[in-house]
Specification:
The chain is mostly helical. Among the domains are: 75-208, Up-down Bundle (Four Helix Bundle (Hemerythrin (Met), subunit A)), CATH 1.20.120.350; 220-384, no CATH class; 552-650, Helix Hairpins; 930-1049; 1060-1225, no CATH class. It holds the Pfam family Ion_trans.
């Protein structure tokens, strides 16, 4: 683009900014006038007053976001003071994370560095407070310093910092001058646990809100109210199940022990291996095998472990909450089943998991999602720039060219001349892009082929792989250098993707240095180069860009989550570092890993129980409350925020939604105008309309052949109540004419009308009028459709103008006609006119006429009905079940009534009365969702599945197998017979495949036939012996698909399944993205810990040469804290051989095993085991990558699946295109 054009564009922008002030003034004056008029017309609290308040709030919002430079009121508001406070807050946060005895023990000079840094931060805080008090006063007026809550909080934090600094000085004085006998205690440092809240003071210094204060308060009040309501809902169920637990289970302290065990002094030698709970005789629980006895043990709360106790209300609430987190609840379930009758524990815990773990958690996600959507609309200016500049805002401009509308870049890829122009053409070409993608794929294949075999060949393969990576690094560096030479460094560095490639090239180049390569310092850059695999698929690239391009939202949430974890880790560090026998909070990295583990919920119950056992008895309730509150916030609020942000990224802009709403109508219009492919097959055959011959006894001239449907209008059979014109058998007119003489003598004979010139004209007019009435009443067409007769425009149609079929008689037909007639009216009660639906000629630019689109939709639907009627008229085998059953045969009509008959739960008061009140409306509505035959088949299927539950391979004699038990075969015979009857009736009524409502018209119909034929074959065969991987076993597996029939029978369940599979494309994209992420981290794991995790199962042996012989291995006995559990001599052991091997359930010897291990961690299961082994065998540096992977793969990747499913569900529901205001209006 030329320089003159850029200058003109900048001039236009400046002019627009000048006119914006005038526009704001006009809006202000109009809003004031609206407020005046509303106040004069409406009373306080009316809708007019509410609208005025909204307009004033919008004006204040507009004025608050004006682009004007704020005026500094005093020296305390200067930029230097703000930067000094930011530095002081950061220093304070760093020093409080480092101030632990273990950290100072590792690096003793750190204590003086912390003291100096604390002195600087405390000085800044105190100086800021003194200056503000001096300028604003303390209690002088309402605007004094201490009248503001933020100022009160600042003073409080400053005092805490001062006390912490004095406490540190007190500690050093006691250390260097012990003769003073100051007696410093380590638990004095608990006062430093308040210092991490300094991050709250740092937030307003970094994040600037542009909305007015009242609007922010309104949003926070509304969102907090919704969260409060859901929290009360959660607390209600917690309290309810806690009370139920006390009443049902109470104290469960019966264990299987040795006969002579002292219940007050239990040792580990007295317990069973493993420890098992029991019930006294007669209660119905587990009975101990001889010679063990069931005895009640006297253990305290620490001995029992807190989790699984229902002794009192507090312990019961704690147990219920931990079980609701779905971590370790099965062990409590088994303990309750052993202590009491199993059905009590089964019902209690199944309903607990359903309500607390599933229902309440999803309600939290829904509430947070909707709240975040409202906040996003109000705070949208925080994520998009209001200051428009040429370099940042106008990177692209939409211009109309000869080829159409195109996006023109204003600042990048400037056209060059000479050799650079050829380079630019080469870089932009598809061949070069494919060339780069091929090399990225080859690099990924090379990483996947590397494997460790734990022998002498590993060294040679490692060296060859090093040369392989050096070659690819040189290749990608050459690509980066060519791009820099082509575009210039300034234009190159502006592009985000080029920045990413440059960082990867620099890091990969450093990784090629042998010193860094052996220590894996820069391996991240080498493995993350595989992220360029995403560009191999444009669809996947667009999807990833859609999710992660709004970096301020997702990136801000990631920063908030990490900052919150760091703050809570620092608090926990200062609270628990002095607790004896507790190693989780010795240093900040250990505290961070512990608090991060609670977010993932993997093993967090064991961690909390260990902390509670190490804590003083008086502080146990407060410590439990602290960890429960942290877990509640991070799992229900923070994780729900991730889902909300991802859903918000998947959503479209508010203005784009309005356009998409109209485009969606157009797409629906185009789809409804065609028939399914299984019906379009009749278009390949020549048309054969059925003709009828009219014979007249008193005439010698032959009558010409006419269409059977036309002839049918002039023949009335009194034996039938009505005549179905549109749905008649193609042979019926011929058969009717030939048998006319015979049927005259019957009771209900056939009558012919005399056809003359007048009667012929009248019959044709009646026929055309009948067509108009039928289209207006039975279709979704509007009244603006063309009419064929003069009298067809009357408001009320005649009774004989609507032909009734055998399937549409009585109340159903009258209701359908009445509903269709009501649709012909507009909202004000007038009849719809063509002028109301005609396209607008004076439509504004960018406005799409909704009425025109509605007209197209109706016409498309009529077109589809016309095509179907033409096929029914011209193709004799169309809409004939199995090509044998007639269209209007009595057998088919009877089967239709049998298939489609169902309970009508709607009573609209047809005979002039109002709607009658019925009892049990919910039950009646439930019965009316399916026809009677589907209800019968659903019942038969459920009974058959219940019968299958009693099948068991035990005992091995086979008496509980279906082929050897006649009682179990009854369910199969009953199911096959019932399904045979169902399929026969439905096929006769609706057809098998080539009919509009065929039985096999989707995947559900194919699945029904598959289930039926496999059941029939297995029942006819009934093999007595089933081999592994045999046909008989395959048929038995197919029998297990029988419950899927419920999905095809129940319409609501079928709709949910269809909506899920409609989003299959997005689910596949998320799956591919997760596979790429797993492959990247698996490659990294292979390079840093591959071949290095093998160790001896005897922890006392460190070398492979000495890992021989046998040793005594401890056995797991109990979770109770009993005497002898930690004693080497008393703990039960077993002698096992020493083996040098990888960890039991994972290794990183090649990419396949590494991806399997990382896939397991996606479910938050087993990742802490990987973390502990990596920490013990390779130090803290090897642990970093597993935390990054869990954060990216689990907290972001898995929420992507949730977000995609929710977004797809709302899209199929029709609410995805609704704006936030429209969505709140519909609710």
């Amino acid at each position: 683009m030329s320089a003159e054009r850029k200058k003109s564009l900048i001039t236009t922008i400046n002019n627009q900014r000048k006119y914006s002030q005038v526009a704001k003034a006009a809006v202000l004056s109009s809003a004031m006038l609206a407020r005046k008029n509303s106040s004069s017309r409406g009373a306080p609290g009316s809708a007019a007053t509410f609208g005025a308040r909204e307009s004033i709030a919008a004006i204040s919002d507009m004025l608050s976001t004006q682009h004007k430079k704020p005026v500094r009121s005093s020296y305390v508001e200067s930029d230097r003071v703000e930067w000094a406070l930011k530095i002081a807050c950061t220093i304070s946060m760093i020093t409080v994370c480092l101030h632990t005895p273990r950290t100072i023990e590792l690096f003793p000079p750190l204590t003086y560095i912390i003291l100096a840094a604390d002195f600087i931060s405390v000085s800044i805080f105190m100086l800021d407070s003194v200056l503000r008090i001096h300028y604003e006063g303390i209690f002088r007026c309402d605007s004094s310093y201490l009248s503001n809550r933020w100022s009160q909080f600042s003073v409080f934090i400053s005092i805490i910092h001062l006390l912490s600094f004095l406490l540190h000085c007190y500690q050093l004085i006691d250390k260097f001058f012990p003769f003073l006998q100051l007696n410093y205690r380590t638990w004095y440092g608990v006062i430093r646990s308040i210092r991490p809240f300094i991050i709250i003071r740092l937030i307003p210094l970094i994040v600037k809100f542009k909305l007015p204060k009242n609007r922010i308060e309104q949003l926070l009040k509304r969102s907090s109210q919704q969260v409060k309501n859901v929290t009360l809902f959660f607390v209600f169920f917690m309290t309810l199940y806690a009370i139920f637990g006390i009443q049902l289970f109470g104290r469960m302290d019966y264990h299987c022990v040795q006969p002579k065990t002292d219940p007050n002094n239990v040792t580990i030698m007295d317990l069973a291996i493993p420890d098992t709970m029991c019930a006294p005789e007669g209660i119905g629980g587990y009975e101990c095998p001889a010679p063990m006895v069931c005895m009640q043990l006297n253990l305290n709360a620490k001995g029992e472990g807190f989790y699984g106790m229902f002794n009192d209300f507090g312990a019961s609430v704690f147990t219920v909450y931990l079980a609701a987190s779905e971590e370790g609840w099965v062990y409590v379930l088994y303990d309750c089943m052993d202590s009491l009758p199993s059905y009590l524990a089964f019902l209690y815990f199944c309903t607990l998991i359903f309500f607390l773990a599933w229902l309440v958690k999803n309600v939290f996600i829904a509430v947070i999602t909707e709240t975040f959507a409202e906040i996003r609309v109000q705070f949208s200016e925080m994520w998009q720039k209001k200051e428009v500049t040429l370099d940042e805002g106008f990177r692209k401009k939409l211009e109309k060219t000869d080829d159409g509308w195109r996006l023109i870049r204003l600042d990048g890829e400037v056209e060059a001349e000479g050799p650079k122009q050829k380079l630019q053409w080469m870089l932009r070409s598809m061949y070069f892009q494919c060339f780069v993608i091929i090399f990225v794929v080859l690099n990924a294949i090379g990483n996947a082929m590397f494997v460790y075999r734990h022998d002498e060949t590993d060294v040679l393969r490692k060296h060859n792989f090093y040369l392989f990576e050096v070659g690819f690094t040189i290749l990608f560096n050459v690509e980066c250098i060519i791009k820099i030479l082509c575009y210039g460094f300034r234009n190159f560095i502006r592009r985000g993707i080029f920045k990413f490639e440059l960082i990867l090239c620099l890091g990969s180049s450093l990784n090629c240095v042998k010193f860094f390569y052996d220590r894996n310092y820069f391996t991240y850059f080498q493995t993350f180069r595989l992220l360029r695999l995403i560009k191999a698929s444009p669809i996947l690239e667009d999807f990833v860009w859609k999710i992660f391009s709004p970096g301020k939202k997702l990136g801000g949430l990631v920063i908030f989550t990490i900052a919150f974890i760091c703050c809570c880790s620092a608090i926990s560090l200062q609270l628990f570092y002095s607790v004896p026998n507790l190693h989780h909070f010795r240093t900040f990295p250990q505290a961070f890993m512990s608090m991060f583990q609670i977010i993932t919920q993997e093993g967090w119950t064991d961690f909390v129980v260990e902390v509670l056992r190490a804590t003083d008895d008086n502080l146990v309730p407060f410590v439990a409350l602290y960890f429960v509150a942290y877990h509640l916030f991070v799992t229900l609020i923070v994780l729900s925020l991730f889902v909300a942000v991802i859903l918000d990224n998947l959503e479209m802009d508010e203005e784009l939604k309005k356009v998409k709403q109209l485009k969606a109508r157009e797409a629906t219009t185009s789809m409804r105008s065609t028939l399914p492919w299984r019906l379009r097959v009749f278009e390949k055959f020549p048309t054969r309309p059925q003709m009828a011959v009219m014979r007249k006894a008193d005439s010698d001239f032959p009558m010409p052949k006419v269409r059977g449907s036309f002839t049918h209008q002039f023949a009335v059979d009194h034996s039938l109540e009505t005549t179905d014109v549109l749905d008649s058998d193609f042979e019926f007119p011929k058969r009717l004419m030939r048998s006319a003489n015979k049927r005259k003598i019957s009771k209900h004979g056939l009558t012919f009308r005399q056809v003359g010139s007048t009667s012929l004209r009248c019959s044709l007019n009646n026929l055309l009028e009948m067509s108009d009435r039928t289209r207006q009443s039975l279709s979704n067409s509007l009244s603006f459709l063309p009419h064929f007769t003069r009298s067809s425009g009357s408001l009320y149609p005649r009774k004989d103008a609507l032909p009734k079929s055998r399937s549409m008689t009585g109340k159903f037909l009258q209701t359908a006609v009445r509903n269709k007639q009501f649709n012909m009216y507009s909202e004000n009660g007038d009849l719809s006119r063509p002028s109301d639906s005609a396209p607008k000629k004076n439509a504004k630019q960018g406005e799409i006429d909704i009425r025109a689109l509605q007209q197209k939709r109706q016409l498309a639907e009529i077109t589809r009905n016309r095509i179907e009627e033409d096929m029914r008229e011209n193709h004799p085998f169309f809409d004939r079940p199995l090509f044998l059953v007639g269209r209007a045969s009595q057998l088919r009509e009877f089967c239709k009534k049998l298939v489609h008959s169902k309970y009508d739960s709607q009573d609209d008061g047809i005979n002039g009365g109002g709607k009658t009140k019925k009892r049990f409306k919910e039950i009646r509505a439930l019965i009316g969702i399916m026809p009677y035959i589907d209800w019968a088949m659903a019942t038969v299927t459920i009974v058959s599945c219940i019968s299958m539950l009693f099948e068991s391979p035990w005992p091995t004699t086979g008496e509980n197998l279906v082929m050897n038990n006649g009682y179990l075969q009854i369910g199969d015979y009953f199911f096959v017979l019932a399904m045979t009857f169902e399929l026969c009736v439905k096929i006769i009524a609706n057809g098998l495949f080539f009919t509009p409502k065929a039985v096999v018209r989707d995947v559900g119909g194919v699945m029904n036939l598959f289930i039926y034929f496999t059941s029939v074959i297995f029942l006819a065969w009934m093999p007595k012996h089933v081999e592994i991987n045999s046909l008989a076993q395959f048929l038995m597996i197919c029998r297990a698909m029988r419950p899927l029939r419920i999905y095809t029978l129940v319409p609501h369940i079928r709709r949910v399944v269809l909506e899920f599979f409609r989003g299959f494309k997005e689910i596949v994209l998320v799956t591919i993205l997760m596979i790429v992420v797993m492959f990247i981290f698996a490659s990294f794991g292979v390079q840093i810990v591959g071949g290095k995790l093998a160790a001896c199962n005897d922890p006392t042996i460190s070398s492979r040469d000495n890992c021989t012989g046998v040793f005594w291995q401890k056995l797991f006995v109990t979770r109770l804290e009993v005497y002898g559990k930690d004693t080497e001599a008393m703990h039960p052991k077993i002698m096992v051989p020493r083996v040098w091997t990888n960890p039991r359930n994972f290794n990183f010897d090649h990419v396949g095993n590494a991806m399997l291990a990382l896939f397991e961690t996606l479910s938050f299961k087993g990742w802490n085991v990987i973390r502990d082994i990596l920490w013990n065998r390779h130090g803290p540096w090897a642990v970093v990558f597993i935390h990054i992977y869990v954060f990216i793969g689990c907290m972001i990747g898995l929420t992507l699946f949730v977000g995609v499913v929710i977004a797809n569900y709302t899209q199929n529901r029709g609410t995805a295109l609704l704006t936030v205001d429209q969505r709140s209006g519909t609710t």
